[in-house]
Amino acid sequence: MKKTIYTTLWALSFCLIAIGQQTPAPEQSGAITIEGATAHLGNGKVIEQSLIMFNEGKITFVGDAKLKIARQGKVINATGKHVYPGFIAPAKTLGLIEINSVRATNDQDEIGELIPHVRSIIAYNAESQVVESMRPNGVLLGQAAPTGGRISGTSSIVQFDAWNWEDAIVKEDDGIHLNWPQTFRQGRWWAGEDRGYQPNKDYMEQVEEVAGFMKNAMAYGKASSKEMNPAYSAMQGIFDGKQKLYVYADGEKEIIDAIHTLKANGAKDLVLVGGYQAHKITDFLKEHNIPVLVQFTHNLPVFDDDDYDLPYKLPKLLVDGGLLVGLQNNEASNFQTRNLPFYAGQVGQQGMDKEVALQLITGNTAKILGIDDAYGTLEVGKSATLFISEGDALDMRGNQLIHAFIDGRNISLETHQTELWKRYMEKYEGK
């Protein structure tokens, strides 16, 4: 009886979440023109007085508003405002976890250490209030990525206004996520060890485990006849270049070991996630054509001899080294991912040009994820996934959205948070 009551309460709680969720926007029904805004194209270029037109979900024109060209459909006068491509949040557990302390809402991790066949997309919750809260800050796309284990599983790229995971998909099963072993690990205080960092005696054994798994998976793919092995089968996209391998590593030695080992065992397309010491080996990363999704941009230095501002200036150091760089910022919780534009804005205060900083969450990230043919920049033929802001969207004072579009659909900017804000503003107004 008690179990039945708990089950009913869980069902009611999820119904309440769904009731509070905004209905996804319908397909674009007519052409739209945005005129007069300062357009930040996401590729480093800016058009001060811009004219942008889109229809059937695709951008049909990007140029100067002074041009004598017929405006199409509904015209939005955006004079004095700014327009941007939708921001992209890579390698996050958005939509896979709702409440950390409630196990039933947590699908970011599965049992097992080497589980590339676990697909995060089937656990993606398109009605998540966390996902919904990204949109008012311009974060319109993301990569739903699993965590945990040595090989966590397979990610997919989604847009943030959908009925279900099938509707949300932008790129399905785009890559596999691998947590590279660490040469040093933190002491297990619960086992009586010192809390500080100490050498990982099992490092080489763990590296060999990864290398052995890669070898076996490659041999499996070449076998003429074989029993079905889901884990090995899921790895085949890594060897033929159809999927990317996202490698989480921070130390200089770990990064070098990971790239050498994985490439030697057939991995075609690697992306480094983290890269805390990547600035020390930019030439090596450039030689191997490794892009970096930077973590820990808002944090303290890890080591005593690090520059006090290393986490803040790391993206600039990597860009100056000639690398393709995006922002991932793993230390931020899912709710804090909405602050992604402000992390980019902070990087712009470390000597990086503001438009280059914008690329870290638009054009660069789209290239790294392999969706730059349709997203990341404002260009003719690409998806009309963009937004209009009252001011500078990389500054929380200017990031005030008035319109947002995903594939040309005029999406709602209302969330659970904005509803609560309006509710209590009315309650205490005038008091």
What is the total tally of β strands? 20
Looking at CATH, which topology of the largest domain would you report? Answer: TIM Barrel
Main-sheet strand order equals 8-9-10-11-14-15-16-17
Q: For the residues shown, what is the average pLDDT?
A: 90
Short description:
The protein has 431 residues and is α/β, with parallel strands linked by helices.
Could you explain the architecture of this structure?
43% of the residues are buried. Mean pLDDT is 90; it is low at 1-19. With 431 residues, this protein is α/β, with parallel strands linked by helices. It has 13 helices and 20 strands. The chain folds into two domains: 22-85 and 377-431, Roll (Urease, subunit C, domain 1), CATH 2.30.40; 87-375, TIM Barrel (Alpha-Beta Barrel), CATH 3.20.20.140. β15 (270-274), α8 and β16 form a beta-alpha-beta unit. The strands form four sheets. An eight-stranded mixed β-sheet has the order 8-9-10-11-14-15-16-17, with helices on both faces.
Helix and strand arrangement:
Blueprint: H1 2-20, E1 32-35, E2 38-40, E3 46-47, E4 50-55, E5 58-64, E6 74-77, E7 82-85, E8 87-92, H2 129-132, E9 139-144, E10 151-159, H3 165-168, E11 169-179, E12 184-186, E13 197-199, H4 203-222, H5 230-234, H6 236-240, E14 244-249, H7 252-264, E15 270-274, H8 282-287, E16 292-294, H9 310-320, E17 325-327, H10 340-347, H11 354-359, H12 363-369, E18 386-389, E19 401-406, E20 409-410, H13 416-428
Parallel strand pairs: 1-6, 2-7, 8-9, 11-14, 14-15, 15-16, 16-17
Antiparallel strand pairs: 1-4, 2-3, 4-5, 7-18, 9-10, 10-11, 12-13, 18-19, 19-20
